[in-house]
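Q: How would the structure tokens look for this protein?
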Amino acid sequence: MKNKRWTTSNRVRMSVLSSSLSLTTSTASISQIRRARLVREKQQEEARANTRSMRARLAEACMEIGDTDNPDFSLNGGLDYSDGDQGTIALPPSDEDDDELDDAPPVYSKYFQPFTHSRPRSHRRHDTCPRVQRNRHAHQAWQAQLPTLVDRYLAWKHNGSGELAGDHVFHVDVIGVFQYERHVNVIQKADESANEALLRVGLLGCSPSQPRIAIRLECLELYHQIRRRQSSFSLQAMVKVLCALQNIMYSQHLRSQFSAAFDIYLNILRFVHTLLKWALGRDGPAWKLRGACPACAFEQPDEPPLSPARLHSMDGNQSAKRLDGSGSADSRLFHSDYFIPHAEVERFKDDVRDRPGEAAREKRVTTCTDNWTAAKAVEENQIQVFEQTGIFLMACRHGFVECIAEMKRSGELAKYGLAAVNRLLNVCGQDQAVGHDVGCASKKTIASSSLGKEAQEKRLKVVVNAFHGFAHNHMCQLENHPLYQIGFGNEDLETCECIFSSSNNTAPLIRHASEFHWKQFLDLHFSQWDSDKYLELSRFLYNNYKQALCIIQTYSAELERFKRSKDITDNDFESWHREELEYLKRCAGESDATSIAAQYVELLEKLNFAEATYGSVTQVPYLTYTPAEFTSTAGLNESARQGTNAVNAEYASALRKYQLQLNVVANFEHQHNIIDRWTPLHREYINAHEYTKHRVFIRAVEELEGLVVQRMFELSKANLAKTGYKMRKHISKAISRRSAAIRAALERYNKLAPRQRPPRPKLDYAEVIGYSMLGEFSLLKHSRYEVLEKPWALPDNREMMMKYFKLQRSQEEITRLNVEIRRLQAWLDFDGEKMKVAAQAFRDSGSSELASEMESMYAERVRVNDFHRTQLQKIYEMPGYTGCRPIGDQPRVMGDGTGDEDEEDGVDDEDDGEAFRLGDTLDRMPPY
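A: Here is the predicted structure in token form.
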């Protein structure tokens, strides 16, 4: 009898109870059971997919007809409608009972019956389209309806809410400044989209097709005005403010919805402004240069010619960076009249044969550009991180931004400046002047580029800015500083620095933005900047006129007394300037023969030192030992052997250094064809040795100069706004260390100064720290041509020479201001008349809403122009005004028209005008 054992089998007996209560028994393998289970799971998954598809179609059908009161729109587990890249909009819960769905229209019946009792509240719809594609579809949907949205916006703004009759009603949640309203009924006509219906009542949806949340236009305009005037106020901050006012929880999708609505609102405003600018003939990128600044461009007949005709400033800024890959799902492109197209910039990519910062340039140019880090290339790690590394812009002297180039993956390269200069030459033409912080290098760059011939023919002048210019070497200042340029007036050409100090506020908000939002918010900021500059234009002219008259009055008497005491004339000041420039040019570089002689003497001195060192080691011919230094078994003891080894090592080292220096000298003599080696008795050796000592002194002066420069920059950084505590502490320590280094360098200078021929004056610490210009160091470096005996090298003469040129520039400033004041006065009348004509043309063509918008712009411009007339009247009444006065009586403006109001009264009147404008705006806003 066999033993019973446990066995295994791959077949099982299976009994299944059917729905008719009949029991079916079958035998199947495990693999068959597994396959059957997989088939059933696949069928169940297909059934669930069909259910999801039908539920989605039902939801879309509900929204299409505007009836969304069904269970699928519940907040807890209901449908989420995706608003493209703006996040997910959680729809409000339904207050209706599920039984009402039995009375649903026929559109529900063929989709709803199969899953009426399935899980209606736990399902979520997930859009399977890529985010980029969803964004593209949303953008295309917005653009398709933009013209009609513009019409509805203008109709609401100037005619109020439209008629309430319609064919359909849908519901939205409305966000206002102080209220959050749920389930607001919106009447929709058969031939209009949902957002058209919303705009008729002053709302704007967050989605182009089926908006569930709408924002009041007053709320969007409030943020628009805040963002224009405070660029650091973010969308997130605005949404948090609204949530706090309405006592609701902040969430990220609310910010996304507000961002979507704000983008389309700005798009509508740009569309309207484009139409208005086209009607006025002020559209296109060329207008920024051709006519945006009336004081620069609105030329009048019979006015005295100005040379240069206009003054501009250009510079780069690296604060407006944007991280590479930020907002990659947003493929929209932003078109701005400010920005130079990328292709136009890249045209000059390989155009320059002499770039700033290259070693091939002259030493004086390299020294100037090295003082400003913006003129250098960006480090490689920054290029890899940032797509946009900053902006490069050009502006007129009154502050109006004329053009902008975005810097891509680079520092302040020459191509950006060339692109800006190219646009300047094409639009403005002859006799233009540009200031740049590295103007000395930019002038050479333009001359060596494809623009060189055109720039020369059109007499383009490139100079350094006033503040930056004092960090250039003194010869560069005498050639390129605006103080010594005829026709530049008192203009410092530092306009770009003022612009960047304002635009830096946008940097934290655009660092991680998409390229579309990066350009959009920069464009918004500069648009408001230009509006502010127009408002301040007459005050700019008034302040400059007042400053120039003050300088003329003060310096004229002082210079007259000095000229009488020294028996000199104005021509002497001019000749001193020319002599100083010629002297520095002669001293700018050493000849090749002098340089070779100095190097040769330095090598010979090193050879003499090596020979003397070797001789001192070998002058003792024998080593002596005493009996105590020997042992009985091993010869010399340990200490004696170490001493012997040290002597041998010193001997070998001295011999090696002597042979090496001997070979270096022999090689130098072979390269420069020196047959007889110089000795200290040779005349050439003596002259070169003296010159070498002077070179050492020059290096000491340059070291002291460099330390003073670094201290100046650290002091300015320590006082810079928004510098954190840790940074201030770090800078304070650096300043302390720099002070110690300056004292050490000053000691080296004072040791060398008396040895020079002629002897240089010793300096103390307070005197060095008090140097106002780096050019003061230049006079300490050179001893040739008896420089210290020249009249222009004397401190008193130099000070008065500076005041003489300042007086000359102030007189030129008066001449330029007289022309600009006349241009602005003529513009005030022309501008208002042009707007009235354009408004009437709109009205005659049947565009009453555009006519009303033009009239609104005219009303705002009248307020600003009246302020300009007040400021101009003050200029006319200034003692010393020499320009033209308008013919006839002036129209009544703020005040009683007598012109006796002081400046403070003018400011109060301006504030009153702002108050009236605010009140008028609030009156025109429709109630909630």
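The chain has 32 helices and 16 strands.

Residues 252 and 686 are 80 Å apart (CA to CA).

Upvote if useful.
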